[in-house]
From TrEMBL:
Cofactor note: Binds 2 divalent metal cations per subunit.
SUPFAM superfamilies the UniProt entry points to: Metallo-dependent hydrolases (SSF51556)
Keyword terms, alphabetized: Hydrolase, Metal-binding
Protein name: N-acylhomoserine lactonase
Binding site for Zn(2+) 2: 144, 177, 206
């Protein structure tokens, strides 16, 4: 057993219960919001989020991992208000989300740069994990980075190496946003391993967007967890294909290397809300409980395997 930091304090890993490993509460560009979203109602948005999370708790889910980091609009005081109104455990992350360049705050400072100092990303990530995020008293529990279709750009590589170094130094686990169609999970594993990260403590996110069993097994055989974590995003891969992939991997003995989630959010400013509701109507926190788990059971995935994916794998991520 291990101690896991949540927004409202530490819990034992054994008490995480059923866990979704990749969900967001708010994905929000704060600078954009302050300049252009004139109709923003903070109290209503918080109330909506509380409703969604309490509904999820009512469906039997106990914990979510929220990998909203710099680049996605992490703002912990808002999350604290929400966490105080739900019994759902919310576990937050540190890291940086980019597909290309890093923010200008880091362009000129770092090893070998204009201001030649130790990697400031490692310093900030470590502080979030060990001391707390800003002055909130909330400690991050895991790390997040990304590699998309653009591949290992210099900015992506710098962030990924900083995440790997921080994980090696602190023991914190990692989640990586990947594009499985470019097999970027294998690239992420290579870079993180070079920096000393333990690949068994890495979720290769969005693996569920792929039906390439050879690729998925190769990632899992290296020790990492497959994030089957975009249920509801049928525009990227149809529901049946997502189900079939998990069923086949479970048959092949990989239930202990898969974890489930939606990559959904209470609010995201990347899309028009009405268009989002019409295009991906099942992209919400309820979809796995209401649709995915019954489909998996019907296809022969056992209750034990489902418990492994929902409870044992997330727990092992921290232990």
């Amino acid at each position: 057993m291990s101690t896991v930091q949540t927004v409202t304090g530490s819990i034992d890993s054994a008490d995480m219960g059923k866990t979704f490993v990749h969900e967001h509460i708010f994905v929000l560009g704060e600078e954009y919001r302050q300049n252009y979203q004139y109709d923003w109602d903070e109290e209503q948005k918080i109330a909506d989020a509380v409703r969604d999370l309490n509904e999820l708790k009512g469906l039997g889910i106990d914990t979510i991992f929220d990998p909203t980091v710099i680049g996605l609009g992490r703002y912990i005081p808002r999350i604290q208000q929400i966490a105080a109104q739900t019994d759902l455990n919310i576990v937050v992350a540190t890291g940086l989300y980019t597909y290309n360049e890093i923010p200008f705050q880091f362009h000129y400072s770092g090893p070998g740069l204009l201001f030649d100092i130790p990697e400031p990303l490692v310093t900030l990530f470590t502080r979030d994990l060990t001391e707390g995020i800003a002055d909130t008293g909330v400690r991050a529990a895991f790390l997040k980075c990304a590699i998309e279709e653009q591949g290992l750009t210099p900015g992506v590589e710098r962030v990924m190496r900083a995440v790997g170094q921080t994980s090696a130094q602190t023991g914190a686990p990692i989640t990586v946003h990947t594009n499985p169609h470019t097999q970027s999970g294998l690239v992420a594993q290579k870079i993180l391993a070079e920096e000393g990260a333990d690949l068994t403590k890495v979720v290769i996110g969005h693996s569920g967007d792929s039906t390439d069993l050879d690729y998925l097994m190769k990632v899992a055989d290296a020790g990492s967890i497959l994030g089957m974590d975009r249920f509801g995003l049928d525009v990227l891969l149809p529901f049946e294909d997502r189900i079939n992939t998990i069923v086949e991997l479970a048959k092949r003995g990989y239930a202990d290397r898969m974890a489930l989630a939606h990559d959904a959010s209470c609010f995201i400013d990347w899309f028009d809300p009405e268009a989002k509701a019409q295009t991906v109507p099942k992209w919400n926190f309820r979809h796995i409980s209401e649709d995915v788990l019954p489909a998996l059971t019907e296809r022969g995935v056992t209750d034990e395997q489902i418990t492994t994916m929902l409870v044992d794998v997330p727990r092992r991520y921290f232990e």
